[in-house]
């Protein structure tokens, strides 16, 4: 069939991902080829000290992103989109969306970006003997309990952003195992919540007298390829305000951006990994063996199939670079020059390649928010330079690129050096890698290992979610019975795909020299947080 016929016959697949700054919808065929796309730009808000997105903005963003996909379909193919074969929803992992028995949101959405659950995360980690990060949903729930928040007694269920949207579309309170692993620890043998830790949590809150059990208010866990329900009549009307979309589409298990990142990069098997660098940055490695020790810098989550993954997550990555891009664009506009933001970013990134390898005394901290790895509860973006620094534009930009992945490097060194984890293949994706030959070179220096970027690297999570939806529909139809990895490397990727950059020895040394200054200067960043 032609692309037009695929769409007209209801054989297209859609993935929608709620990212930090963009909600993107992608339509593909069964082979992963992109047919159309649409998006909606948004930003989180700091309200009463809580990073959040308003629930009505969530609804509006979903509808406008999908609506723009519909427009793209109509403009490219002259087709009114009425039927989708399968659909998948993904979003930023973690956070806290709690509802009562009537589906009322009890408190505003608390996103992954909040660092307000330190007490809870610490107590849970000690009790479980398993690292529970501050951004995990169970940390938010337990912190609310410790804070004696009145809403907790009324909780009927809580979930992630992806789980919430999936429920609105299907009526199913389910979650893909990868996203679920950011709510509560998963037992990779049973592919479900860890029963021993569930029991320990019950004991921790037994004196509170709640009329709910922790397992009953968590979403049901599903694996990649499972049937996660179908689009209901009310779900179709909720998604498509025109009323053209028909009910009945199969939905894949809703996933987090970590799982869609693994899928979009084909890194779901043992000893493979990926690094996603955008508003936040995280690296994930599928583990061959369990880690030997508990590290608070290392999270253990899962692939969309339920296999253990070591994850280094940092709250901050490219937001400060984006802010500086705005400054430079503002300068060009004030000078009467035409502003092309793609050219601004390309110039910024490429200039970093002409810098001194160690940035010659220019240091940048990209902390818009707190960063657990370096012990900061909140952030103050900051540039510091030594009195004898070579403060050139090139060094300034290289320092900003180094800063974007500096916290990640601290965590990865624990994983690769202290734990001795072997990585056969690391694949990069996200906006940090958009300028060819720059982001992957900087990341290779940070990791001291080869980094591959795929031709599809710019598509990222929504494309990965669409692939998961395609995988579910093929399994549902009985057309494919293999593993997710077999689907990805049998139908979507080939082993030679992408551009691979090996680490340059001078770059590695320069990055390590920069990191000495960076680590020493964290005390200055903490002082800024305390005093400003």
TrEMBL record:
**One of the GO BP terms on file:** carbohydrate metabolic process
UniProt cross-references to SUPFAM superfamilies, sorted A to Z: Actin-like ATPase domain
Pfam families annotated for this entry? Answer: FGGY_C, FGGY_N
Domain annotation Carbohydrate kinase FGGY N-terminal: ranges: 13-237
What does the UniProt keyword field contain?
Answer: Kinase, Transferase
Presence of the UniProt keyword Transmembrane in the record: no
Sequence ranges assigned to domain Carbohydrate kinase FGGY C-terminal in this UniProt record: 274-472
Is the keyword Kinase assigned to this protein? yes
Gene Ontology MF terms: kinase activity
What family is reported? Belongs to the FGGY kinase family.
What is the protein name given in its UniProt record? Sugar (Pentulose or hexulose) kinase
Organism this protein belongs to: Eubacterium uniforme
């Amino acid at each position: 069939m032609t692309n037009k016929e695929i769409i007209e016959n209801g054989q297209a697949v859609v993935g929608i991902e709620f990212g930090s700054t963009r909600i993107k919808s992608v339509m593909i065929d069964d082979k992963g080829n992109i047919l159309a796309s649409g998006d909606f730009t948004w930003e989180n808000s700091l309200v009463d000290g809580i990073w959040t997105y308003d629930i009505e903005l969530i609804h509006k963003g979903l509808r406008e992103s999908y609506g723009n996909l519909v427009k793209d379909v109509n403009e490219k193919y002259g087709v009114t989109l009425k039927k989708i074969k399968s659909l998948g929803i993904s979003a930023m992992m973690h956070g806290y969306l709690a509802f009562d028995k009537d589906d009322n949101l009890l408190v505003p959405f608390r996103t992954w970006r909040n660092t307000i659950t330190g007490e809870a995360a610490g107590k849970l980690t000690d009790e479980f003997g398993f690292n529970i990060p501050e951004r995990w949903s169970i940390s938010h729930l337990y912190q609310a309990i410790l804070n004696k928040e009145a809403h907790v007694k009324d909780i009927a269920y809580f979930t992630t952003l992806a789980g919430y949207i999936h429920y609105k579309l299907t009526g199913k309170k389910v979650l893909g195992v990868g996203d679920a692993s950011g709510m509560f620890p998963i037992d990779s043998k049973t592919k479900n919540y860890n029963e021993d830790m569930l029991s320990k949590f019950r004991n921790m809150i037994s004196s509170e007298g709640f009329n709910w059990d922790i397992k009953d208010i968590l979403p049901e866990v599903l694996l990649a390829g499972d049937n996660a329900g179908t689009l209901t009549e009310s779900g179709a009307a909720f998604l498509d305000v025109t009323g053209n979309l028909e009910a009945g589409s199969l939905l894949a298990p809703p996933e987090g951006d970590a799982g869609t990142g693994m899928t979009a990069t084909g890194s779901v098997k043992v000893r493979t990994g990926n690094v996603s660098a955008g508003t936040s940055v995280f690296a994930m490695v599928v583990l061959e063996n369990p880690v030997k020790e508990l590290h608070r810098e290392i999270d253990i989550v899962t692939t969309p199939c339920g296999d253990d993954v070591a994850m280094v997550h940092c709250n901050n990555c490219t937001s400060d670079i984006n802010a500086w891009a705005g400054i430079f664009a503002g300068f060009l506009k004030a000078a009467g020059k035409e502003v092309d933001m793609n050219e601004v970013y390309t110039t910024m990134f490429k200039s970093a390649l002409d810098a001194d390898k160690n940035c010659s005394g220019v240091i940048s901290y990209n902390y818009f928010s707190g960063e657990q790895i370096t012990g900061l509860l909140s952030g103050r973006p900051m540039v510091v330079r030594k009195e004898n620094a070579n403060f050139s534009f090139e060094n300034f930009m290289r320092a900003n690129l180094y800063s974007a992945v500096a916290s990640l490097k601290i965590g990865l060194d624990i994983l690769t050096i202290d734990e001795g984890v072997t990585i056969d293949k690391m694949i990069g994706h996200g906006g940090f890698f958009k300028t060819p030959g720059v982001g992957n070179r900087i990341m290779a220096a940070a990791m001291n290992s080869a980094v591959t970027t795929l031709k599809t690297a710019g598509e990222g999570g929504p494309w990965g979610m669409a692939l998961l939806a395609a995988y579910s529909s093929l399994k549902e139809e009985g057309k494919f019975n293999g593993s997710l990895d077999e689907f990805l490397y049998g139908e979507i990727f080939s082993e030679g795909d992408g551009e691979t950059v090996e680490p340059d020895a001078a770059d590695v040394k320069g990055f390590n020299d920069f990191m000495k200054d960076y680590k020493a200067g964290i005390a200055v960043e903490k002082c800024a947080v305390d005093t400003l």
